[in-house]
Amino acid sequence: MLYCVQMDVRVPSDLDPARFERLKAEEKARAQELQRAGKWRHLWRVAGRYANVSILDVTDHDELHAVLSSLPLFPFMEKTRKAEMFIQANGIPFHVQVSGAERAPVLLLLHSLGTSLHVWDDQAMALAGRFRVVRPDLRGHGLTAVPPGPYTIDAMAQDVLALMDVLGIAIAHVGGLSIGGIVAQSLAAQAPERVGSLILCDTAMAIAPAEMWRERAAIARSKGLEPLVDAVMARWVTPSFLDRPQAAGLRAMLLRTAPESYAGAAEAIAAADLSHATKDLRAPTLVLVGERDEATPLASAEALCSAIGGARLEILPEAAHIPTVETPEAVSSAMARFLLSLAGA
Question: Which CATH superfamily is 1-78 part of?
Answer without folding.
Answer: Dimeric alpha+beta barrel (3.30.70.1060)
